[in-house]
Specification:
Number of helices: 2
Structural class: alpha+beta
Strand content: 25-35%
Number of domains: 1
Largest sheet: 6 strands, antiparallel
Bound molecules: zinc ion
Radius of gyration: 15 Å
Mean pLDDT: 92
Helix content: 10-25%
Distance between the termini: 20 Å
Number of strands: 6
Oligomer: single chain
CATH topology: Peptide Deformylase
Order of helices and strands: HEEEEEHE
Low-confidence stretches: 155-164
Length: 170
């Protein structure tokens, strides 16, 4: 297991368009595994290549239903809208509401280069869109409304029970 340093907002790689993956080898498999380890340790629910300084179209996600590793993700279908809270491991402590497609179908390639599709709604759909934006140099703060800083953990406030903002970082 290797944890990779997460790049923070201000680093150029986060604003660059990532390149397609065209080699599906052991190094790519290791990259996916390291990205998942890094994401879980953060903790977060999604991570994209540029966030660890790798300008390649690779993303990992896990919103509680198990890990997804996808190269060259592309949204093939989209339907409806949802507004919901997002955070980002590259922008610690900042949260905001982002309007996203509600349901999407994403096509990409697995660690062996085999094409697969995922139908996603709710949080998984939101997370895919957030990660794919990273591959195009976009950050959630470009689109977010109601941007706010997280309350300190030790601050006594009953509102903190409503949701756990740590679960939204991607
Ligand atoms: Zn992010």
């Amino acid at each position: 297991m290797s944890l990779l340093p997460i790049k923070l907002v201000g680093e150029e790689v986060l604003r660059s368009k990532a390149r397609d993956v065209d080699v599906f080898d052991a190094a790519l498999a290791r990259l996916f595994d390291d990205m998942l380890d890094t994401m879980y340790a953060a903790p977060g629910i999604g991570l994209a290549g540029p966030q660890i300084g790798i300008s390649k179209r690779v993303i990992v996600l896990d919103v509680g239903d198990g890990p997804i590793r996808m190269a060259n993700p592309k949204i093939m279908e989209k339907d409806g809208e949802q507004l919901g809270l997002e955070g980002c491991l590259s922008i610690p402590g900042l949260y905001g509401d982002v309007l996203r497609h509600d349901k999407i179908v994403v096509k990409g390639q697995d660690v062996n280069g085999k094409t697969f599709r995922v139908s996603a709604d709710g949080l998984l759909s939101r997370c895919f869109q957030h990660e794919i934006d990273h591959l195009d140099g976009k950050l959630f703060t470009d689109m977010a409304v109601n941007l706010h800083e997280q309350k300190p953990k030790d601050e006594d406030d009953e509102e903190d029970d409503d949701f756990d903002e740590d679960e939204t970082d991607a």
